[in-house]
Amino acid sequence: MPGNRPPSRYAPDQGLTTRMVTTMFLIGLLYVVFVGALLAILKGSWPIILLIAGGLFIAQFWFSDRIAAFSMGAREVTPEQAPELHGAVDRICALADMPKPRVAIADSDVPNACAVGRNEKTALVCATTGLLRRLEPEELEGVLAHELSHVAHRDVAVMTIASFLGVMAGVMTRIALWGGFGRVGNSRDPNAAIAMILIPLVSAAVYAISFLLTRVLSRYRELSADRSAALLTGRPSALASALTKVTGEMAKIPTQDLRKAEPFNAFWFAPAFSSKESLGRLLSSHPTLEQRLDQLGRISAQLARP
């Protein structure tokens, strides 16, 4: 049975599992507090609030991977259309003893790759045309092993849901303000003015806290995926070479193309920045290149020991 399938050969990461559980618990608790605050402030609108909260969460769980793939311009391809990419994915999946995900290509010169999907059955791994043009076969396999690690460890699903909860807070706030105060705003209730101030403040706090929590998890999961991919393939130098090449090539990409890719940085193999001094680097979803290369260097030395 699929439910009894043994784990893949990717090295388990207890630290990643602990961080995923902790992040989901804290963000879930934060979301419950947020909904509770909305219910307390907008007493007469509780059915709408609960309906919207439940509907958005269900929609996010079932359709987030499709929405993300569509937004990135990912186009699913067959083995005949992309034999080299499919061959690399086949080799990694055989090495890891895991089901093969759907394979897609995004028509973009930004050299990158990503994985989306709430589980192994719905997973999709995508590489951009810019990445495929620039990397050697061993480097491409290292990048794909990194992305498939996210699928095997299920952290891509956790990141997708966790990221969406902060966005959901903002959406619900706008709906609550629009639906709840059309009636309240016309009354002379002194509490209405206070509520009009409190709701955006609570929403902003929820978004900020959820953003910071997901960023902390995201940095660790990228290091975990690098480590797992290097140990699985036994070629940390190939992954280090791909990282160096992708990061170096990113500086040559037009700013307009980088800005299109920036919203999906949490899913990309390497972050896209439209400015070297961007504030995004301070709140990056990825560890620095130096941190990643340093870890791969230690793994390479470890594997070289007799």
From TrEMBL:
It comes from the Bacteria. InterPro entries: HtpX_protease, Pept_M48_protease_HtpX, Peptidase_M48. It is a multi-pass membrane protein. Its EC number is 3.4.24.-. Binds 1 zinc ion per subunit. Residues 80-297 form the Peptidase M48 domain. The active site is at E147. This is Protease HtpX homolog.
